[in-house]
Amino acid sequence: MQKPQQKPKNPCFSSGPCAKRPGWSFAALEDAALGRSHRAKVGKAKLKEVIDRSKAILGMPADYVLGIVPASDTGAIELALWNLLGPSRGVDVFTWESFGSLWAADCKKQLQLPDLRVFSADYGQLPDLTQADWDRDTVFTFNGTTSGVRVPNLDWVAADRRGLSICDATSAVFAMDVEWSKVDVVTWSWQKVLGGEGAHGMIALSPKALARLEEQKPRALPRIFQLNKGVYEGDTINTPSMLCVEDALDGLKWAESIGGLPGLIARSQANLKAIESWVATSTWASFLAKDPATRSSTSICLSTNADAKAIAAKLESEGVAYDIGSYRDAPAGLRIWGGATVETSDIEALLPWLDWASQ
Ligand SMILES: Cc1ncc(COP(=O)(O)O)c(C=O)c1O
Fold first, then answer.
1. Confidence band (pLDDT; 50, 70, 90) for 218?
2. Minimal CB count within 10 Å: which of 55, 77, 239, 343?
3. Model confidence over 240-261: pLDDT tens digits?
4. Is the CB of residue 298 below 6 angstroms from any atom belonging to ligand 1?
């Protein structure tokens, strides 16, 4: 096969930090409140704006709260685990790839929860979600970034649950429909679907999760992990980067300009479709996700007998695609980010290059 002529305009296909939105340049950061206190009126207003725009785009119920926290999604989800889980209620963790496994390991080894059940599945599959006992607290990842397996929906979550449903949704929000009535805690980071910068996380809490925080005697925690009420108004635990804040605002405004959540979901679905059409005729690549209903439209993971590492290296050196090798703990293969900031035309331009590099 001859070398394709046309390269993707943007070769960034990383699963995080993800590609900047189309048309992004440093000019997007010109209004950043640099050199100003994040507690000054101007700084605090920007933090609040991130919270308010995120809530509006995601259609968060009015009685849920949303805060900006340190340490990206890892910080946000660990903050939830350490503040909310405790001896008063058993905990179930569902895991099917690296990140869920990390949360399960922390529940076991670090938090040493006395009544813990872990339901796991291999890369490419989901565990048996019907095992969930909604009298207990439940922890799960909406979209497993390292296996490309997502939960198809939240129908399996009981509406009348007594326990909390705690969801790491960092590679799902702004690309998939997260049914708010089925989740009590949702976490994500700016560096994912909207193509923001690393280091900052978001945590959304339902009234039930807030009530748990009030009624449970807090563990001794480092200050950086102590959830306080002000967080939900933009009173962050410690100092955020106002440059990153400006960039997050830029991503949110772009999301609004392309039709909000439906627009974001449509773009991601179009990216998955382009890859699905190609896989359907491919002789060397298939989806790692076994069930099409569980195929992620963001972290699109492919299995192959070809030398995936060599393909990724070749395409990087050609300036065609960066960071498309599978995650270090995942089975060897390729992983192409299909979140909303990636143009479908760039995915389409990449596909012939994959065939070329696989020979
Ligand atoms: C599902 C999931 N959880 C957690 C993380 C960790 O995110 P962060 O680096 O933003 O802490 C990632 C990063 O890829 C992820 O995909």
1. confident
2. 239
3. 999 999 999 999 999 999 999 9
4. no
pLDDT for the residue numbered 193: 98
Could you tell me the fold of the domain covering 26-257?
Aspartate Aminotransferase; domain 2 (3.40.640)
Q: Name the architecture of domain 260-358.
A: Alpha-Beta Complex (3.90)
pTM over 0.85: yes
Q: Is the CB of 187 under 6 A from ligand 1?
A: no
Q: What pLDDT is attached to residue 153?
A: 98
Are 139 and 94 contacting, i.e. CB atoms less than 8 angstroms apart?
yes
Atom of ligand 1 nearest to the CA of 299: 16
CB of 147 shorter than 6 A to ligand 1: no
Pocket of ligand 1 contains residue 296 by CB under 6 Å: no
Q: Classify 221 as helix, strand or coil.
A: coil
Rounded Cα gap, residues 105 and 22, in angstroms: 38
CA-proximal residue: ligand 1, atom 3 (nearest): 99
Whole-number Å distance, alpha carbon 70 to ligand 1 midpoint, is 13
Could you report how far apart the first and last alpha carbons of the chain are, in Å? 8
Q: List the chain domain ranges.
A: 26-257, 260-358
Helix/strand/coil for 117: strand
Q: How confident is the model at residue 230 (pLDDT cuts 50, 70, 90)?
A: confident
Q: Residue 250: beta bridge partners?
A: none
Using alpha carbons, list the distances in angstroms from residue 213 to 103, 118, 138, 217, 219: 20, 24, 16, 8, 11
**Is the beta carbon of 246 within 6 A of some atom in ligand 1?**
no
pLDDT tens readout for residues 318-357: 999 999 999 988 999 999 999 999 999 999 999 999 999 9
Ordered DSSP codes for 222-290: -GGG---GGGGGT--SSPPPHHHHHHHHHHHHHHHHTTHHHHHHHHHHHHHHHHHHHHHH-SSEEESSS
Using most ligand atoms within 8 A of CB, pick from 18, 74, 178 the residue to mutate for ligand 1. 74
